[in-house]
């Protein structure tokens, strides 16, 4: 089934099928498959839920990927400017089509895609862009590399996405754009973000680095705002080691993105603006093209497995899967996120819970250790002579005083996730193992104090 055929109805149907299957799964107790030695946690000598089993390997590689790289090597076309029909221009055309966009500019990383977008929109010194503190540092880097001010808004606790109300509170006369981050590959509250942007005449750059093929209210993520940016770093659900892309439907704006990313030189071959050299190379595009045939199938598989896993955890008080906003039709499931509720585990801290689950043969993890609002880059830019020249002392002091994001702090402490790019391509039994490991630890939560 192609992604264009993946409708909201089919996504809900997949979730319903998961719920039905859950009712006949291999669980014995109310929570988990716990019999015999399984009544003791593996970390304390019991039998692990999962033994001697691997997960689907990631990043994806098959003979088609290898052949694509070999063909590119033999062609001696190793840079996009050598040929208008090389692997990079071909990938741009195919990725734009895959994402239901008119245009695409491929870059060397997702961070480069974001920075190119900021520059192409004319955002720079004295300007402000509102974004999330719960993200990869590349999000912030793309803004401060343009010498704009990255203003961090707090989160919705259950979705891990930007809280639109806090976004609106942080708008100033210098705000030029909002950069929502689609965390875990799930849609942010784009209806609210776009409403706020329209009200205040702001641009929207979607950081969709984790959100390949995700759909919100009939639209692919990356096509809702003015520009959408993606990453193809090794862990992503479409990967080539490094690499990124910008998509959009405004031809003039996308031409400006091309000019910026091509060291300021336009398609006409004239150097027109300030710009870095952010071109994707032909080998990265060869890896991407080689795996393209199965991208939609893998996307659908992750959605089906995620729906089943959610059905297994439905009604369980110990963990709460990431909240999806109304209108979410599908997600990339780069990560499968859940909130750990320690009050249901005898107040054992999250690290103890993670160790116990890992001993059962299922590796979960935290994600962002501390929000970016707490990290040294903030003091670095506020104390720098460059920023002191571009922003008033009053604004910089206000920025320092108002950088608190308490909900983000909570999310950093509570969130647990499955790194889903590979594991969510597994079998139904693999999904049962994940659920059973979590539920077994819950059944034996009285033992957590002994770890």
Briefly say what this structure is.
The chain is of the alpha/beta class. The protein has 16 helices and 13 strands. The chain is globular, with a radius of gyration of 23 Å.
Topology:
Blueprint: H1 8-23, H2 63-75, H3 87-98, E1 103-107, H4 110-120, E2 128-131, H5 137-144, E3 149-152, H6 164-169, E4 175-179, H7 190-200, E5 203-207, E6 215-216, E7 219-220, E8 227-231, E9 244-248, H8 251-261, H9 282-291, H10 295-313, E10 319-321, E11 328-330, E12 335-340, H11 350-359, H12 377-383, H13 385-390, H14 393-401, H15 406-414, E13 415-419, H16 428-443
Parallel strand pairs: 2-3, 2-4, 4-5, 5-8
Antiparallel strand pairs: 1-9, 6-7, 6-11, 8-9, 10-12, 12-13
Helix pairs in contact: 1-10, 2-9, 3-9, 4-5, 4-8, 10-16, 11-16
């Amino acid at each position: 089934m192609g992604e264009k055929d993946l409708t909201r109805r089919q996504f809900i149907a997949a979730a319903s099928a998961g719920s039905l299957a859950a009712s006949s799964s291999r669980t014995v107790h109310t929570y988990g498959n716990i019999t015999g030695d399984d009544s003791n946690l593996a970390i304390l000598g019991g039998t692990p839920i999962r033994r001697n089993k691997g997960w689907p390997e990631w990043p994806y590689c098959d003979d088609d990927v290898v052949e694509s790289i070999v063909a590119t090597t033999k062609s001696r076309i190793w840079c996009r400017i050598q040929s208008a029909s090389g692997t990079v221009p071909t990938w741009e055309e195919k990725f734009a089509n895959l994402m239901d966009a008119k245009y695409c500019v491929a870059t060397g990383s997702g961070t480069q895609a974001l920075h190119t977008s900021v520059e192409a929109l004319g955002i720079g010194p004295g300007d402000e862009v509102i974004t999330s503190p719960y993200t990869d540092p590349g999000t912030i880097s793309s803004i401060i590399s343009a010498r704009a001010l990255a203003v961090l808004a707090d989160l919705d606790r259950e979705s891990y996405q930007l809280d639109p109300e806090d976004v609106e509170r942080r708008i100033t006369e210098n705000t030029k754009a909002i950069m929502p981050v689609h965390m875990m590959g799930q849609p942010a509250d784009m209806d609210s973000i776009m409403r706020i942007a329209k009200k205040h005449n702001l641009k929207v750059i979607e950081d969709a680095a984790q959100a390949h093929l995700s759909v919100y209210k009939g639209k692919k993520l990356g096509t809702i705002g003015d520009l959408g940016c993606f990453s193809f770093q090794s862990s992503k659900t479409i990967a080539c080691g490094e690499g990124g892309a910008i998509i959009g439907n405004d031809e003039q704006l996308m031409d400006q993105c091309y000019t910026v990313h091509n060291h300021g030189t336009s398609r006409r071959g004239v150097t027109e603006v300030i710009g870095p050299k952010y071109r994707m190379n032909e080998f990265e595009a060869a890896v991407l093209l080689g795996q393209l045939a199965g991208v939609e199938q893998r996307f659908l598989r992750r959605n089906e497995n995620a729906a089943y896993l959610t059905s297994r955890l439905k009604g369980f008080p110990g963990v709460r899967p990431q909240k999806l906003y109304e209108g979410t039709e599908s997600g990339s499931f780069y990560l499968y996120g859940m909130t750990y509720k320690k009050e249901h585990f005898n107040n054992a801290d999250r690290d103890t819970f993670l160790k116990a689950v890992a001993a059962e043969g299922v590796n979960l993890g935290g994600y962002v250790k501390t929000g970016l609002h707490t990290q040294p880059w903030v003091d670095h830019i506020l104390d720098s002579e460059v920023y002191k020249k571009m922003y008033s002392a009053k604004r910089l002091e206000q920025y320092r005083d108002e950088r608190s994001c308490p909900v983000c702090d909570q999310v950093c402490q509570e969130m647990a996730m499955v790194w889903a790019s590979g594991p969510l391509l597994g079998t139904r039994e693999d999904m049962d193992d994940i659920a059973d490991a979590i539920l077994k630890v819950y059944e034996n939560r009285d033992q957590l104090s002994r770890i």
